[in-house]
Write a structure and sequence with these properties.
258 residues; 4-stranded antiparallel beta sheet; 3-stranded antiparallel beta sheet
């Protein structure tokens, strides 16, 4: 270490600097202009930086919960350069913790994210280890992150409850509660004939399941047809999805309060 570096080290060690978004930090080591270590006070975390960052305040604390007040980048090999993973993580946190999102989609008000996945490093590592994380469907779209196929009604995003599924499977399982109206899923009242009708869409084409005297009869027709269709989908995607997703489709039960 040359004399200039020694002098600069003596000058900077213990000196505090204000950052733009993460409060104060203190220099705890100096080995040159491009090799400075600072310590943040809250949350406590040491970070490598350059003296130019000390001057302009652009040092960030990877443990600071900057995403919806809970999510943080964490310390590890993953970064904002992992754009697809960051986007997935951000959307997941939005569904769980954004009040604006909850106003538009009230069914997500009780949704949360497990503590481990508040740290982006843990979420990114899990994604990287999923066989179908980078898989694409027949339309070239990435598989989607799903939280409630494996455990119906689940409200927690976690490694145990989530999986990646083709977009079409997600769309088939979507109950569309907001747009459905007063009747159970798959059921509508046809005033002209004073009957209840049931049906569902298969790739944009409406499959009509007949007229029925009661809501219960109409829903039963829908349930049987939908569960049969899910069996067909399971076989269609059998080798393009995780085995646990395949089993989830085989065992999926449609309920009247979906």
């Amino acid at each position: 270490m040359d004399i200039r570096t020694v002098r600069k080290r003596s000058e900077l060690l213990g000196k505090e600097f204000q950052t733009n978004n993460y409060g104060k930090c203190v220099v705890v080591d100096y080995n040159g202009a491009k090799d400075v270590t600072v310590m943040f006070y809250e949350p406590i975390c040491s970070v490598k930086c350059q003296t130019s960052q000390l001057k302009d305040g652009t040092i960030s604390n990877p443990l600071y919960p900057s995403v919806y007040g809970l999510g943080f980048m964490g310390v590890g090999k993953y970064s904002y350069k992992d754009k697809r993973t960051v986007k997935l993580w951000g959307r997941m946190l939005e569904r769980a913790f954004s009040s604006i999102f909850h106003e538009r989609y009230p069914s997500y008000k009780d949704v949360t994210v497990c503590e481990d996945w508040l740290d982006f490093q843990n979420f990114a590592a899990w994604c990287e280890n999923q066989k179908f994380f980078n898989a694409k469907d027949e339309n070239g779209s990435y598989y989607q992150l799903d939280k409630d196929l494996l455990y119906k009604g689940n409200k927690i995003y976690s490694p145990e409850t989530c999986c990646f599924v083709p977009q079409y499977i997600n769309s088939v399982l979507n109950s569309c509660g907001k747009a459905r109206g007063e009747y159970p899923i798959g059921v509508a009242y046809f005033k002209k004939v004073d009957k209840f009708i049931s049906g569902f869409c298969i790739k944009g084409t409406r499959k009509h399941l007949g007229y029925h005297n009661t809501v219960e009869e109409a829903f039963q027709a829908y349930r049987e047809a939908k569960e049969d269709y899910l069996l067909l989908i399971a076989e269609r995607y059998k080798y393009d999805i995780d085995y646990k997703v395949y089993i989830g489709l085989l065992e999926y039960k449609v309920e009247i309060d979906d």
